[in-house]
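Async update (no meeting this week)

Hi team, since we skipped the sync, here's where things stand on the single-chain job. The sequence we agreed to prioritize is pasted below, unchanged from the tracker. I ran it this morning and attached the output directly underneath so nobody has to dig for it. Comments welcome in thread, and please keep replies under the output.
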Amino acid sequence: MLGPIGRVAQGIAAGSAGIAALEIASYVDQYRRARPASDSPTRLGRALADRAGIDLGEGDAATNRASALGPVFGYTDGLLLGVAAAALSATPGRSTPANALLLTAGAWLGSNGPLIALGLTDPREWTTEEWISDLIPHAAYGVTTAVAVALTR
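Output:
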């Protein structure tokens, strides 16, 4: 039986595995479609810095800092979702597929919610291909994280 510290460690490990799966799925899609890297993390980093009153500097320095802030936000979200999944796994009755679905939705909302709220994207305007391209990495996160939690109970 895991205690609170064990659940946090379990969640960080599961979330890390999920983040790796999301990144791999994203890069495979980028390779498969020969598409450029998304600029959403940089736009999110810039918007978050603006909202928080953080001075990113000028020129390339500002762009580089903004391109770091977005992924840091995403990695934090992925780790916290993993910790939440580990904490909830202590409650019996939820299946791994149900956890995977909840984690997929949580990862999608964690990634896209801030972009939508800040007016940086509108999923209603996405094409089917864009939806698929966005959902598959988040599903990879959800399934991997749920399985990792289940395997470390």
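Quick observations from my side:
The mean pLDDT is 95.
The first helix runs from residue 4 to 33.
Reply here if anything looks off.
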